[in-house]
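Office hours follow-up: a student asked to see two folded examples consecutively, so here they are.
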Amino acid sequence: MSLKHENNSGSDAAGYKQGTVDSTAGQQFPAENAEAVATNSLQRNLKGRHMQMIAIGGAIGAGLFIGSGGAFQTGGPASVFLGFLIVGVMVYLMMQALAEMTVLYPINGAFTMYICRFVDPSFGWACGIEYAISWLTVLPFEISAACNMIHFWPGSHGINNAAWIVPLLVALVVIQIFGVRGYGEVEFVLSLMKILACVGFIILGIIIDVGGVPTDDRGYIGGRYWNDPYSAFLNGFHGFCSVFVTAAFAYTGTELTGLAAAETMNPRKEIPRASNQVAWRIGIFYVVNLLLVGLVVPANSPLYGSATSVSKGSPFVIAIELAGIKVLPSIFNAVILIAVMSVANSCTFGSTRTLQALAANGMFPKKMAYIDKKGRPIPVVILQLLFGLLAFINLAHNGGTIFNWLLSLSGLTILFVYGGIALAHIRFRKAWAMHGHTLDELPYKANCGVWGSWICLLVCVLALIAQFYVALYPVGGPNLDPTTFFQLYLAGPLLLFLYVLWKGYSWIYEPSHRPLFIRTKDIDIYTGMREISNVGVSAEDRRASDAELGAEKRKPGAAGFIKNAIRNII
């Protein structure tokens, strides 16, 4: 298994033995040879523009456009604004930690393998399996949601959802035929359309709020819906706690840049760039948009619960409806449909790469590790698409209940994964220092350092505690109800079950995995290490990369900062 150290023949690290410190203290490690890092045949077909769009494309979806509506109803506009802002900061800190590790170790499986290597294989396996399950179960849900979006248009009335499920699944199959390049190109186009829609809504939201829409009888709105007789914080602290999981679910997909590292042409350059751009895009496309929605849509709007409302109560569409604009609801419904299909596209990437990496490391059935000559993990792709067939369950009379339980498996998963990434970064930094290395040796350093990971981990823990409280005492009741609790918190017991399952298995078959956690001196920081992106680089390429890295580390000055900020936004 790649979790165990393998000596890199011909390198300065050849004498390294796991658990020793003095033998390698202060050494510089050359770019590894092709044999040491070519652990899979995934192809590096993702370009910089793909990576930058994946960083936001996998995140902007139904969680933002539709799921935020429930958060407005339970928490109010101020709770949504603060909740998404806090979780957004946590996501940025997580992405910085992930970028630091991914640039140094652009390996298949990324954060799942980091948790296995730097924290504990059992915890990493549990996070990886639950993360894959979350994508497997979200895919049929997204397909069903896409069918609901289609039914908005009059021409689709009376047509059974099965007529839409089949072509949507076929479209996903066609994308998979083209491998990771097909995924990247589709995500690039869909993400660009979503970005334009978000920017357009910001402009429209400002116009609505200042009373610039002639068809809106409300006139100037300002902060009306944040004051009496309305409320900025519905249900007080209770309502505020209910927002965190909704926000975390809405941000899910941002971490896909880490999974894409093994298929990126230049991970050392593109991953930090994509990670740094996350901050600007979180602030603009999430926080600003939701702030404007909270200003122009009252949290108690009857359209949230109306069966005739467009797009199942999307607060964005409700804002357009309340303004009396007749054409835009149909256009924005199409945007929501695009967003849903974008998430479905991300589902096939997130689950397949995670399961293939686990299989390649002996932690999942070996047949699932197979990759064809074009870099496509065929067995796990087939598994993901088979889960897509569960969308037909929604055609049954009790299909909605079944879907609620399927989605309960993924409700908290992303918080466990983000917390695991932060913990892995903390352990990595400690092991890096123990083995005698300095931060200047890292190709990329997280902007907020290890303290950023501690803050990220703390926010994850607090969000899990808040959700536990909401699961026991949900807004509107029933209190202490077992069914409600497990629908809101099933991912927690599932993670514990998976952890105990692998720990029990490893106690018999993998003795090295028996300890509760890996001791710092036993952490392997050398296997798969890369100092620059490409395999088998020459000394000249290495010097050029070091010079480029040095130039990037230099302070750009005020003009350069403004220039970089504008470039990141656009």
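And the second, which I mentioned at the end of office hours:
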Amino acid sequence: MSSSESPAADGPNTKGPWTEETKRKFETKSKSQYFDPCQDAAARSIRCLKRNNGDREMCGEYFQAYRDCRQAWMDKRREERRKAGYLF
């Protein structure tokens, strides 16, 4: 595993999934278009599965990195919606 593929690369020293750029992309996308700022973490977990012949136990750190990314993204979106006056 190279350092660029390491789940630790998503650590606290890197910018989170919800930056001004990702916010702009999310808000300007069409309603039918899917947008995931954590796609990089998802791709790493899929590569790990392929590399390990589908053995999920070998890729737990990658799955957790993706879950952490998604949680940070959803928390930030929720916070911004609350600030904007939305109820949900």
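Two things to take away from it. Residues 35-88 form one domain. The two ends are 40 Å apart (CA to CA).
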